[in-house]
Amino acid sequence: MSDLGALLGEAVDGSLAFLRRADADAAADIEATRRRAVTRPSIVVVGETKRGKSSLVNALIGVPDLSPVDAAVATATYLEFVPGATHGARAWVPDRAEPVGLELGQLRDWATTLGQLPEGTRPPRRVEVTHSAPLLQYLSLVDTPGTGGLDPLHAEVALDAAAQAGALLFVVDASGPFTRPELEFLIEASKRVNVVVFALTKIDAYPGWRTILADDRAQLQTHAPRFAQAPWFPVSARLAQLSMTLPGDAGTELVRESRIAPLQHALIELAGNGHLLQKANVLRSVRSELVRLDLRAGERLTATDPDPADVAKARADRAALAARKRTESRQWSLTLNTETQRARVEATGKLRTYVGQLQDDLLTRIDKAKSDELKALPSDLDTALQALSVRLSQDLEFRFRKVAEKVLAQVFGADELQFVLARLNATLRHALTSRPPRDTGTDNMMIAMSAGGMAFMAGRGAMAGASALGASALLGGGLLVPVAGLGLGLAAGAFILYRRRAQSDRAQARLWLRDVLSEARAALSDEIMHRFTDLQYALTLALDDAIERRLAQLDAHIAEIDKALADDKAERTRRRAAVAAEREAIRSRIKQVDMVLVRARTLAPAATTEDQELP
Q1: What is the pTM of this model?
Q2: Where does the chain cross the membrane (predicted)?
Q3: Are strands 78-83 and 126-131 parallel, antiparallel or unpaired?
Q4: Bridge partner residues of 80 (DSSP)
């Protein structure tokens, strides 16, 4: 491993020096990642909900129910399990400078919406759990929120955690092969992390799991060939947990049937190479930037010896965009306004439906509840409102994306989007964060949210992604406008008011419920209006900026073509040779990086002999 460490170090140094000459900003970003100290290797567990992810975490740590399972509604919280002589937890809550100390029994309350947070407390974004379990002496284990379809809101949380990971443990179950969202998430996460280990859970519940495993491997071979040879570990967390309750040979046999031990040993082996994993991850990030530079060099190479048809097309594109800016900008503005208003009305209607259903359900419960059961109404309502806010946040994200897609489709052609998406992210972020903050406080309700979290998921990688996937894929589903989640809950005033007026009175409880839901609906309705106003404002600025930048890009491209046409044949040959040499140097560097990353595959743990022989 010392030879591999030296090889990785030399490759990172050389490749970063190469990248620094070509793109200093990209190199600086990667340098910041490289300088981050690795105190203990971190394995990040990702996967969709109901895949048995949290149960697997508990089985690996060897503590039943440590990470809350069966959470019907996930929060945007991830749990980081670290070693500690004493057992406890700390929760990092927005707007609080210091973490909140917790008992292990409180994790369900703080990490899921099924529990009960203290009055007026916002859900935490991260919870650190300390435990003396043997596995944690070697590594930190991070359990990320799993949600159906790996929706963008929680996928972002998982990707953020993955960015700090030494390796990923990707969890799927034996009920069926990979879903498309799972594969897309894996491809995105693999841009930052070099080693991924796969766990196939629930093998005790599905006798045909070997067929599913073969299908999963085939899908990786087709859609993510880099992981075609990655190690797979079929496991049963249920059998592992059951083994902890049985003594003697019965427990030992269940441990063997659960197949948890090989995965534990594999993760410990992986953690032993933490510093090497970090170097490999840095090198993987450098490779992604080099691929982007290669694509850009290809465009410049084409411009040095332009085809007459390309010349005519570039000039026509420039003239058409300039003419459309003069004649259609008013139409674009009207389209943006119309689509924004329509989406806002639809979102408000959804809110009315959600609140109405919630009120009907809770009124029915009040009518049937005994007097002691009425005391739990505030906590039940707070949980329901938290769930409603998650659902509404996801709905807003979907509507925001649709508005942006419709407007962009009118302004830019599919072949132009790859040139504008990379800049839209920065423009949107600046437009949103430069707006003066709003006061969202109310007397009895707490609404905590920020429009600054809304931005296009683009960046330097957007152009490479557009070239690889095609601009139509970006409009078809890759274009995302994540929304900072709506945080909605009962503040202390609402709890106090309930205790004073309605704690054991059914009629007063009904009146209290209607009052609170009315305030919640009004507050959320106002916030929806502000969110769409922010979206319209940000998209207006972003579109103006994108059009001007696209015109400038076309002007530069045409100027380069004109220069190429004006030069004599010898000069064009010289310039083409220079660009070709630059591109060849980039490709040569990519090949060198790939050779080292192939060697780095040895960092991935090997599956057991039995598992390697599975079909």
Answers
A1: 0.58
A2: 473-498
A3: parallel
A4: 128, 142
* pLDDT tens string 537-568: 777 776 777 677 667 766 776 677 667 666 66
Asked if 28 and 35 count as a contact pair (C-beta separation under 8 A), the reply is: no
- Give me 388's structure tokens: 């409603």
Reading the block at residue 371, the tokens are 């007097």
Q: What is the pLDDT of residue 150?
A: 46
326 CB burial (10 A radius; 0-12, 13-18, 19+): exposed
Q: How many residues does the chain have?
A: 615
Helix (H, G, I), strand (E, B) or coil at 513: helix
Tens-digit pLDDT profile for residues 403-420: 777 777 766 666 556 555
Q: Which single residue is written with the structure tokens 């044949």?
A: 569
Longest dimension (CA), the chain: 94
For the chain, helix, strand, coil in percent to 5 are 65, 10, 25
Beta strands in 134-206 (DSSP E): 140-143, 167-173, 196-201
Eight-class DSSP state of 136:
G
Give CA–CA dist 350/530, Å, rounded.
16
Angle 460-466-469 from CA coordinates, rounded to 5°: 135
Residue 608 burial (CB count, 10 A): 17
Would you tell me how many other CB atoms lie within 10 Å of the CB of residue 242?
18
